[in-house]
Design a protein that fits this description.
about 475 residues; alpha+beta; PmbA/TldD fold; 2 domains; eight-stranded mixed β-sheet; five-stranded mixed β-barrel; 9 helices; globular
């Protein structure tokens, strides 16, 4: 892979490019899924190729190819250079890259047990055992589960002297129970919705999830939702569980702080952002207790790495500090717009065949004090929301609505009954301004989101969110159906 990178850099030097990057990647992905007592899907995919990005005359050009022969690399370099030349003739504003010193480094996410080496039979046995326990619960109509594993080996080099080797290994798993009856259908998931939880770790992470130990509870809660009352409508104090808080952070903090959205260079897929440049350092984003950071250095985070895909080291960047909006997720070619002297290290590509975009790393809500039980005990009358079911947010990331799989009504500091089809709505800065408590470090947990979409052509990225459960005052709540 290093030889391929050097061939690419040599080709760019021969062309006389102002600046160039070469990124070679080998990607391996395995997915195992079951439905009831049958295999629902098995796949293992591998790909390898090279992406070459050229900056010339103030404009970018990019080409990717799976042909890593010297001739194939030379053709890709010429193509990227020609695209940059053509773009420079019509581009209104020159690209201005923030400086970055050269780095020679090696980085690997650690693991104890290689998840790609775990026998398929062992993974299927775990999934089928979970399904058996779920299906043993009377009223359950279907059980599902899955395990996913990824490894990315990549070498990055640029014409200013960087050469960076990285190996990123990640995996995760989850189970689901579906109950049907009386004309309706309910789902419960563990440890969270949409496939489960994920981390930059080995198979030991999946073992620690204790899927089998939670399977019966998942089935029982799904069945209980069939006869549970619909969540009441009104204004309530609400407590939000950790996995739902992760999605809340993702949609109402992560995406709007991506600087390319703010600048209008990323709009077509999922809209822009309300966080205009004048708000940096001056805008009240939330309550004084709200502190949010982008931290690509957190051990085990799904958005953890050594260097981004522009060769910038992983960093921790303040997004919101004591309730005030402090800064953006940035890249070398966007940070200049906010007067930054160095990229925040958030430029990432989903594969060798895609250009780097400004992406979330690990967007984390820093912990407060106490426990989830303390948040509930301090609530006279409210609703506790757990496990995402649906989400909707406008193209400026201001108005949102989230639904969860399950909720509990809280009365005098105790959960008194299960509620189904719960929804809560809000306006982003008002919502975060209503945050009155955040549980402490003991309740803080890293959640992994493996399917964050952005860009056209679409790029699916792995990101992380660390959070504790949190409490918000006077939030609009309603029940669906």
């Amino acid at each position: 892979m290093e030889r391929v990178v050097q061939d690419g850099l040599n080709a760019l030097e021969a062309l006389g490019a102002d600046y160039g990057e070469v990124r070679v990647e080998r990607r391996t992905e395995e997915n195992v899924s079951i439905k009831n007592r049958e295999v629902d899907g098995l796949s293992r995919r591998e790909s390898q190729g090279i992406g070459i990005r050229v900056l010339h005359a103030g404009a970018w050009g990019f080409t990717a190819t799976a042909d890593t022969s010297k001739d194939g690399i030379a053709r890709a370099a010429r193509s990227a250079f020609a695209i940059a030349q053509a773009t420079a003739t019509v581009q209104r504003q020159r690209v201005d890259l923030a400086p970055e010193p050269a780095h020679q480094a090696t980085f690997a996410t650690p693991y104890t047990r290689d998840p790609l080496a775990v026998p398929l039979e062992e993974k299927l046995e775990l999934m089928f055992s979970c399904a058996e326990r779920i299906l043993a619960v009377q009223g359950v109509a279907m059980a599902k589960g899955g395990i996913a594993t990824w490894r990315v080996e990549k070498v990055f080099g640029n014409t200013t002297g960087s050469l960076i080797h990285q190996t990123l290994t990640s995996c995760g798993a989850g189970i689901e129970a579906y109950a049907a009856g009386a004309g309706e259908f309910q789902r419960r998931s563990y440890p969270c919705a949409f496939g489960g939880n994920y981390a930059s770790a080995g198979y030991e992470f999946i073992e620690k999830l204790d899927l089998l130990g939670h399977a019966t509870q998942v089935g029982e809660e799904a069945v209980s939702l069939l006869t549970a009352p619909v969540c009441p409508t009104g204004v309530f104090d609400i407590v939000i569980g950790g996995s739902q808080m992760a999605l809340q952070i993702h949609e109402s903090v992560g995406h709007p702080t991506e600087l390319d959205r703010v600048l209008g260079t990323e709009l077509s897929y999922a809209g822009g952002s309300f966080l205009s440049l004048d708000k940096k350092g001056a805008f009240r984003y939330g309550a004084d207790i709200v502190n949010l950071v982008a931290d690509a250095t957190v051990p085990g985070g799904l958005g953890t790495f050594g260097y981004d895909d522009e060769g910038v080291p992983a960093q921790r960047v303040d997004l919101v500090k004591n309730g005030t909006f402090m800064g953006y997720l940035s890249s070398r070619d966007t940070v200049r717009a906010v007067g930054g002297r160095r990229s925040g290290g958030a430029a990432r590509a989903s594969s060798w065949a895609r250009i780097p975009l400004v992406r979330m790393t690990n967007i984390n809500l820093l912990p407060g004090t106490g426990s989830l039980d303390d948040l509930i005990a301090g609530t006279e009358h409210g609703i506790y929301f757990e496990t995402n079911k649906s989400w909707s947010i406008d193209d400026r990331r201001v108005n949102f609505q989230f639904g969860t799989e399950i909720a509990w009504e809280i009365q005098n500091g105790r959960k008194i009954r299960v509620l189904k089809n719960p929804l809560y709505t809000g306006i982003t800065p008002q919502f975060w301004g209503s945050c009155v408590a955040i549980a402490g470090p003991e309740a803080w947990h890293m959640w992994g989101v493996p399917n964050c979409g952005k860009g056209e052509p679409s790029q699916v990225m792995q990101v992380g969110h660390g959070t504790s459960p949190a409490k918000f005052a006077k939030v609009q709540v309603r029940g669906a159906g």
